[in-house]
Queue: 3 jobs
Job 1
Amino acid sequence: MSVFVAVDQIDKVFPLTGGGSYIALKGINLQIKKGEFVSLIGHSGCGKSTLLNMVAGLDLPSEGVVTLEGQKITKPGPDRMVVFQNYSLLPWRTVRENIALAVDSVMSDLPAGERKSIIEQHIDMVGLRQAADKQPGQLSGGMKQRVAIARALAIRPKLLLLDEPFGALDALTRGNLQEQLMKICEENQVTAVMVTHDVDEAVLLSDRIVMLTNGPESKIGQILEVDIPRPRKRMEVVEHPSYYSLRSEMIYFLNQQKRIKKIRARKTGAIARHGLEKVNLELGFLPLTACAPLAIAKEKGFFAKHGLDEVTLVRESNWRGITDGIVGGYLDAAQMPSGMPMWLTLGGHENKPVPIVTSLTMTRNGNAITLAKRFYDQGVYSLSDFKEMLHKTPQGQHRMGMVHPSSMHNLLLRYWLAAGGIDPDRDVKLSTIPPAQMVADLQNGSIDGYCVGEPWNLRAADENIGFTIATDLEIWLGHPGKVLGVREDWAATYPNTHIALVKALLEACHYCSQPEHGQEIREILAGREYVSTDIAYIQMGETNTSTTCSLDHPMRDYAHHQFYGDSGVNRPSRTEQLWIMTQLARWGDTPFPRNWVEILERICKVGVFSTAARELGLGDITYTRKAIQLFDGTVFNADDPIAYLNSLAIKQDFSIAEVVIDSRPTVAA
């Protein structure tokens, strides 16, 4: 289908009183097909109505062009009709006369009888036959809006533009009008663009949802395709599998924009102090037991001790928030899954490489695989039992949750399944779910299991809705869990700050590893600003082989975190990052880079870690490179990773490519 409306590189700049200017929209590109219904959504001030007005011809772009069927839009015209929230009816004219005014003006070349027929047809179309001779003052808000819609459609516009048309209506009236509008648009193949603040309305009405970022310089942040078939009924739409994921995506986007606005409001330029280039930092984390080093560094004063006396911890609900914060520059650094630096560097986010470095492993272990309790009741106690159950029910789609494609949760879950002969992309469906949502989704039956960090496995078992079928202590004892991640350009701009940050967190890791601090740490983590859960679900403990359970036993202890120790517990490992690199390629998340040695050297900043450890007086930390061996007995060949990849029985077709990463610094001092 050809392009009907084209918005090409639109900028909109408004002059300010007293001089200066305000850039409302920047670089907007959008193509709309004939018969398509597109919604524009975003917070107030993001330029939704400004964009709509430029499509209508009521305003002109400062740069760029808007076209309708290839013709440049320079002024309003009858081929585009706008329905405003305030109805815009003439109060001294009746319903019929308000519609007739538009029809007679635009279609003056038609015979009077034909014009009259069009007017009466549209009165019936919006269900206003009994009110045809009433003036607007005698109508309800919903009826007035129907008159405005009838008037707009009666002149047969090529494009219907709606600026929050139902915003002032009660819920019942709004619902009825939405269904009428859908019916009218479908029957008449109307192309429509609508501004709305209502996420449910957007999902119900739209073929695509265009989400705009905050102003100034608003741009298109994301476009959602609504794959719910038409015709649509409100109560049927909410039952569609895509409904809640679309809704959640919009709510996440809007919440993230709100958070970005708050961060922008409080963010100042780099404040240099104590010999550091920057002491005012925004550090992202997720509500997991693994956030303990960040919480302790803040609460016990380790950040301040090392000169970072203006640190704000930013609590995100999922790893996507961390990704957006780091990529967008709203976060200085973050707690990350151990695979995220590699994933971002290789272009896992929107196919755009964002070089990330890690100089500290903050935790090891701490994850587990949980299945719904009903599987245990059916005799599923092991991986082989799970495989047998899947093969007995091939018609059932079993859905499992993980927290992010780059997370060790995803990579270990996939490895565990594949080692048991289960294809994680064919035999089950893996979905990305925020950690804190896992238990609720397991309880309501929308997922059959998950792999996540504590305390969410322990909580599922404690509440008798799930059981731990395997801990990461069994799958890969001592694997990297969470790491410190910063952008490569940030590390280059603030080298002394980077070392101070590693020192503060390494000292906090050591504090977390001491048993006498366990109860204090549990109380801190259980608080609302961190994990926000019952203290009973927060467990601290060192990893030791006596707590590692065999796969032959179904009920397991919690997955212990290891925060600190000798033999390179906290040291970034290029061998481990290489294994992660192979797994990301194995499942098609990123290509395997031909220049993999260069990539590993750029990601793993061992020198920064060594400097921090030495300045803390920890120069005697030993490190021994060990072969990576997982539970199935396979030994990772770090000398020939491509041969290792080829040896794996279950995998996707992986690609090998040279990965070019821009190393130019972009962080402002």
Note: The domain at 270-669 is CATH 3.40.190.10 (D-Maltodextrin-Binding Protein; domain 2).
Job 2
Amino acid sequence: MKKILFTCFLALLCLVGSEFTCWSQVVDSPPGNGLVDASSLHPGREEYSTPAQKGEENYTLIYGEIINPDSLGPLSLKITPYYISPRTTFLQEELLLDPINGEFYDGVVNPRTRKFDTRISLSDRPGYLSLFLGNRPLLEDYLVLPGDSIKLKLDLSKNAIIFAGKNQDFYEAQFALKRLDQRREFDSPRQLIIPETSSLLTRPGSREKIDYFRGKFGAELLILKPGKESLHYLIAQADQAEDILKPKLEILDFYQPKLSPKNWDLLRAEVYGNFYYSILSTFRKFHYPYVENKFSAKDRERYRQRLTELLTRVGNLEFDSQSKLISAAFLDLELERLILNALWKNRSFLELVQENHSGELADRLQAAYLSNYLASHTGQEEILLNYLSKTESSPWKDRIENLKRATIPGEPIEDAQLISMSGDTLNVSDLPNQPTLVYFYFSTCAHSASYFKNYLFPLYQELEAEGIKLIAISVDEDSDLWKERIFKYSDPSIPNFNLRGLSKERWKELYEITSFPRVMLLDRDSRILSFDIKPLGETQKELLQEFRKKFNDELSTKTNTSL
């Protein structure tokens, strides 16, 4: 209902209307239609926008009104213009929103309502958007159209999220589909795959509790034995795909007349992709090792045949070529399908991509594969160079180039601004001209504390006299927390610095820092010799021996330069 203002003769103003988100080892070969422009037929329902000139950015305008009774944190947006992998932040952008009070004259009359507006930059195709209140996702991984204008109502006091704007049905359809996912997850039995000898089942009273709650209205636990029983249940889910997906397909049918053909097909790719990806990834990560190592040759062949039929069925799903270049769910699904084929055929993943796909789609799959699984390979430099030679289009080639820069040592470390304990600033380029271990951590990570005390600091104490220096760099945004916990996560006898803000985000993206601790080794000229020394050894003795063996040249000359 539109907001309508009436000015009354008695100088009274009245307002009518509504207020306003163990895999098996992979090696390479892996371990373990034409487009129809129907916009003229559907006024108000736009296809993907195209820049007026090459290189011009597509801005999407977002206006929102929020009622938040709890004030649980800042409001922020995360924009992913190109989905590649959940492991990477490549080309992602985060925006901090600053809602302000509305005014009577702009139509925001509820005093609890705050409003915000911003523009986000996309490419010439849809990307993904998430909206967070602190760490709490309000909208998670919504496809958003370039050049669109979106209105949002977020009434957290009533748990209401409403979309408006010229493509409101595209967003309402996604909201409905995501709600069905949540309903299915809530209404399905909680699966537990454990052997009958597990202590969870054999401890006194466990069986009685399971029997008592079985069949009652509410939550239910489904216990499956690992092996044939759990695998049969998984395959049965795939065989019932049309029945399981029927409610979501009915949503798509309802919204189809309201959406452009491209947008409808994109949501369809998300529906099928998410469902089949879940099944194939569950099989590869949890069932494949069991099948290969525990099943008889006859049973292995029988189940492989059933899964091969499923892969064929999945491979025959047809989607618009643009949907394949945009949909995160389709990309994840196609990765799983090709990886399983590569495993069974003992083939290279890259070879299978080149056989099954071409052009930008092949490039996208190659960049996604490396983003997910490069760290699991040996011979990473050779693999990266091989993939680069087969990848031509941006941003996928750019992504692999970034991986190369974060994987193959030898380049000088990127400069950044560090903050000392006294609050002074220091550039990385000001580090001493001697071999330096650079330890990255954050002050609530138990793994960081353990690794520093049990491995890294003892290593440094052994090598200090041979010219090795150690500095600690916290990535905490809270400087007080960092300083308070120096004794637990580092040591006051070594230089301690803090890296935060834009410098931290730049380094995290550039060097693929997605987990902590990370310990780089720099040479005398601040070139990166190792992106992480942790893989060198699992014991103090082994770490020291392997470090000396690999970096013997760096230990041969002492330097007395100090910070």
Note: The longest strand covers residues 58-67.
Job 3
Amino acid sequence: MISSYRRFLLLCSLPVFSLPMPLAAQEAGPVETGPDHEHAEEENDYIIVQGTRLNRRVQDEPIRVEVIAGEEIEEKAIMRPGNIAMLVNETGGVRVQVTSPALGAANIRIQGLEGRYTQLLADNLPLYGGQAASLGLLQIPPTDLGQVEVIKGAASALYGASALGGVINLVSKRPGDEFEADILANATTRNGQDLTAYVAGPISANAGLSLTAGAHRQSGQDIDGDGWYDMAGYDRFTARPRFQWDGDDGSSLYVTLGAMTEDRVGGTLPGSTVPDGTTFVQAQDTERYDAGLVAEKPIGDRVSLHLRASAMRQDHLHRFGAVVEDDRHSNAFVEASVAGTSGSTSWVGGLAYQADSFRSDSFPAFDYSYKVPAIFAQLEQEATHDLTLAASARVDFHDEFGTRFSPRLSALYRPGDWTVRGSVGGGFFAPTPFVDAIEAAGLSRLEPLGDLEAESARTASLDMGYADGPWEANLTLFGANIKNSTRLEDIAADRVRLVNASGTTRIRGSELLLRYKQNGFTVTGSYVFVDATEPNPAGTGRQRVPLTPRHTGGLVGMWEEHGKGRIGVELYYTGRQELEDNPFRTRSRPYVHLGLLGEIVLGKISLFANAENLLDVRQSRYDPLVLPQRAASGQWTVDAWAPLEGFILNGGIRLRFGGH
């Protein structure tokens, strides 16, 4: 096996290519969740949303798109340089849920919907697969991000089956007109280290290159001394070269290559055992390679041709105690479309094809290969100066689950200082074996899949925002009905099967955001309510969806001045959650997460320190993490409902060269 160091050298020797987000979008500064109104248009003029295909300014989008950019990304990058989990977790209505306490794997839940329904994109491309693996979220550094776009609710009309619950689009930085470099070194009190670098520059008047690379290490930590790793150990190396070309006639070409390798180990410590007296090491070795391109060619003044294409392969070697699973996931995607404008009307129409496959050398009964051609169309109409209407529709011809129609209707109304958005949509999801418990326990105890039905959802939202001077307020009401959702069912002490749940899972909720911003000071308060219920498997009424807190809230205060530094404090509250298959409790305890951040800028050098979880909240302070006996699925831990790592202090240095 190639050593991790040699693999890292191989990754960094790949040729350099790049795609950028519009340069102006990088210069716009932070744009967090919340309303975009006329008084803020000067600040937001350069924030161009890419995830909805029509490249409109964020304040002109009928679909509500929450954009994180500029200083906000830089702030989260120094808090957690190794992955984007914290970056998306602190967006209202978005929750990062740990799916495998043994390895620390996690996925993204949007407005209470399961994490497998969230489509993770990079520059509008599915570079992490149609259904991103739970560890994928923890393997993406934020080093080269220019903005992050969050679309909530069924977005299958835009991106097909994988976007049933919403879309997270990671938009990369664009090379500027001069050389720039950003190097960050970080260390934590839990013996973790990160080293990341971003280098970019022009190669001609119309073309630029960039390279992002990172090395990340974490030693395994048994914080409560029970012989089980509360934090998995890992060594990870990443490299992503990009190329960007912009023609004088408006044509453009973006090419990206990516490579990542990681070895991750959790479970029992050497010499320790689980309650049945055996050792249970849980480990995963991952190698992922991907490539993508985005091209655009204008035809006249009002019509343009667009092409997007990508391919990804991810190889896994899992270990679940004595069981070793060797498998690979692959994804291929291509989309061609025509877009145009005519007066107050904008439109897009096109064809798409996506293929997702899974191959297991250990358990070939679970192999699948989905091939899905599709046609889609979008139409936006500025009915009046204050009212814009939008419609999207997509028909997927799934080779396993038949023809599926996914619509979405949206409206934007902006009277004065108010902004009102409404949206309804529907979509579907093609079931795979990889629900959360299987990600955590493997395939060895799962029965071969039967005749599962495709999962489907209908979602709706109403968003109202108001802005006056330094004050902003936003209220969102949302709901979703999910049919045929898949879940695990125990059929023996050591066997489970995947079935479609009978009845409908219902989610209703609201998000409230208040913000005051003046003279470098920003204070943001947020509150999210989620009422999620599902049919009781015993057939006796309904029950609350596990691991979905009804009440969450946050209060964030930040002072920052460009070129000098920043100081911030964050407080987040997570309410009680229903639990299942937990012998220690049926409901979790509420908890508060408190953090403190400081950074000082000294010319091209900045020094930073970040204290996370100052109250040292840990799930293992209340109950053991390890089960008294192994679950039917094969999992040895209870579900994670609170932080596992406790208090962590990290700090480091950031060096910047060139650029503006």
Note: Helices lie at 4-12, 23-26, 41-44, 71-79, 85-89, 156-159, 436-441.
